[in-house]
């Protein structure tokens, strides 16, 4: 999407506004993680959240009415993911669809030779390439108020969107600055993903949620949740992966949990 000069000016204006105090209070109540942030981080989070609130189309599904609480709570959690980035507003994601709770979607599973099995599955959220992010509000709330269990739906779905910034193929690798970084990332993430698959297979203990063993793209999304919410175990057991995640996200969540 070409970002026009007018849109850029509008965005800069939004970012300079202070956040309304009632919105700030919503963040205090619903996004436990913000209490770990320093003043500057909190200010950055609020100014980014204002952009998400203003620029995205927020749509309620199954009769859910979008309120300030919904917009502010979700926008603050996306902004947490983006704290280390200067200008990441997911311009390819124009809409955020919110269901009241877990919802049912049609699933398609290929059985090979052109056979496609269709069924229904229960979902908490989805991320579409150049399309919307879909979220269950009940899960957003549940994950928002607990910041140290390694589960966060908003971080998960938007990590998929980061993965898709370099193309439709979700491969657990977001855009990186240099070829050397890319090569190192792929070597480490491939190895760590295989490790989780084998840990799950043989019933060994693991830090990451076993859903990450479904596909390497799920591994990246699940590991992102763990990176933010259980950084100490992540760093202790997977130091190299922790290092490349810290470089990529430009954040060191372990420092927020130490001591
Ligand atoms: Zn996922």
TrEMBL record:
InterPro entries reported in the protein's UniProt record: MetalloPept_cat_dom_sf, MtfA_fam, MtfA_N
Coiled-coil ranges from the UniProt annotation: none
GO cellular component: cytosol
UniProt-recorded Gene Ontology molecular function terms: aminopeptidase activity; metallopeptidase activity
Pfam families documented for this protein: Peptidase_M90 (PF06167)
PANTHER family in the cross-refs: MTFA PEPTIDASE, PROTEIN MTFA
Name the UniProt record assigns to this protein: Protein MtfA
């Amino acid at each position: 999407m070409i970002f026009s000069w007018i849109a850029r000016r509008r965005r800069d204006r939004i970012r300079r506004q202070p956040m309304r105090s009632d919105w700030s209070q919503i963040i205090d109540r619903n996004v436990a993680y913000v209490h770990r942030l320093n003043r500057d981080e909190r200010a950055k989070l609020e100014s980014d959240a204002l952009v998400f609130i203003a620029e995205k189309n927020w749509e309620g599904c199954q009769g859910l009415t979008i309120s300030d609480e919904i917009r502010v709570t979700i926008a603050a959690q996306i902004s947490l993911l983006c704290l280390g980035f200067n200008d990441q507003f997911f311009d390819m994601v124009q809409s955020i669809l919110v269901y009241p709770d877990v919802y049912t979607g049609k699933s398609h599973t290929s059985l090979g030779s052109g056979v496609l099995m269709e069924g229904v599955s229960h979902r908490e959220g989805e991320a579409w390439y150049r399309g919307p992010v879909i979220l269950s509000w009940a899960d957003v709330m549940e994950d928002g108020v607990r910041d140290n269990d390694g589960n966060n739906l908003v971080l998960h779905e938007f990590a998929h969107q980061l993965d898709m910034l370099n193309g439709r193929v979700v491969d657990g690798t977001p855009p990186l600055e240099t070829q050397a970084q890319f090569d190192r990332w792929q070597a480490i993430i491939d190895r760590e993903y295989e490790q989780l698959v084998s840990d799950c297979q043989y019933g060994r203990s693991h830090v990451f949620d076993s859903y990450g063993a479904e596909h390497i793209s799920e591994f990246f999304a699940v590991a992102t949740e763990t990176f933010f919410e259980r950084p100490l175990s992540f760093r202790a057991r997977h130091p190299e992966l922790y290092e490349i995640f810290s470089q990529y996200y430009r954040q060191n969540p372990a420092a927020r949990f130490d001591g």
